[in-house]
Amino acid sequence: MKKEWFHSYFDESYGSIILDTILPDYTKNQVRFLQEALKPEPNASFLDLFCGKGRHALLLAKQGYTVTALDLVPSFVKELQLKAEQECLPIHPICGDARDLSFKNYFDHVIVLFTSFGYFSDEENIDLLSKIRTSLKPNGTCLIDIENRDYLLRFFCKEKWRKKSYGWLLERNTFYQNTSRQRTLRIVLDKHGNATESERILRLYSEHEILQMGQKLHLKPIQSFGDYDSSPCRSSSPRIITVFKK
Ligand SMILES: C[S@@+](CC[C@H](N)C(=O)[O-])C[C@H]1O[C@@H](n2cnc3c(N)ncnc32)[C@H](O)[C@@H]1O
Q1: 98 touches ligand 1 (CB under 6 Å)
Q2: Measured in whole angstroms, how far is the alpha carbon of residue 109 from the centre of its chain?
Q3: Residue among 79, 143, 156, 78 nearest 114 (CA)
């Protein structure tokens, strides 16, 4: 069987080229936003689904919340586990596939951040949202943060070059109208001219589709933001950050 793209796209190199280069202040601001949007009780429990190396999980745990953090990549989860142990933080790291989520009425809040929703088939994506709902306690909330299809298509960028300390990062994008999917070919060029390629295939959503999916699953929309500055979501907003209540 053909390997799904996310089994090879997310690896140590993604960790060092993307996750490790996110500025700490940006993450701090995201966590401040999360607290304003979700208003967690002092001892609330969180699930950070698709947690990466746990940059949000670590900050949330430092604020006293209990955090379960799940990711597919063993080295990301290991790194988080070591940090949590060193700092005695209430984090429970899990290495696994988000599609196997099986918690029931367990979390006060579930967060899915930095465009981690839309990796699977349409049926699997909706099934994942249903599993997220099941994992929430009654009245629990989930927050999904994705890129806005309307914005991406309006300012569609076929090719983007970025200068990095290790060389160049090139992204080539193609959009498939019939499936609403964006294929991104990411090419890392090191200083010696060696190129490494990887591919991401992401289902893009407009706000109304996310809201409809929630409605189908009896998730009540509380608010939709257009970015981490708390602006409302519009078609011209770069992101769709939706809060649903069970
Ligand atoms: C865009 S990154 C976001 C990481 C993290 N939320 C952050 O903001 O730093 C997406 C993450 O999803 C993880 N991932 C990809 N496919 C997955 C799957 N099927 N199940 C669980 N995690 C997965 C990747 O390993 C990666 O760490």
Answers
A1: yes
A2: 14
A3: 143
C-alpha of residue 217 to centroid of ligand 1, in Å:
23
Closest residue by Cα to atom 18, ligand 1, is 97
Q: Can you tell me the distance from the alpha carbon of 220 to that of 243, in angstroms, rounded to the nearest whole number? A: 8
Distance in angstroms (rounded) separating the CA atoms of residues 53 and 144? 18
Ligand 1: does its nearest atom lie under 6 Å from the Cβ of 228?
no
What digits encode the pLDDT tens for the residues 179-221? 999 999 999 998 888 999 999 999 999 999 999 999 999 999 9
Ligand 1 within 6 A of CB of 72: yes
Give the closest residue (by CA) to ligand 1 atom 8. 114
Q: For helices 24-38 and 55-62, what crossing angle results, to 10°?
A: 60
Q: Look up the pTM and report it.
A: 0.97
Q: Do the bridges between strand 107-112 and strand 136-147 make them parallel or antiparallel, or are there none, so unpaired? A: parallel
- Look at residues 63, 53, 214, 197 and name the one whose alpha carbon lies nearest to residue 125: 214
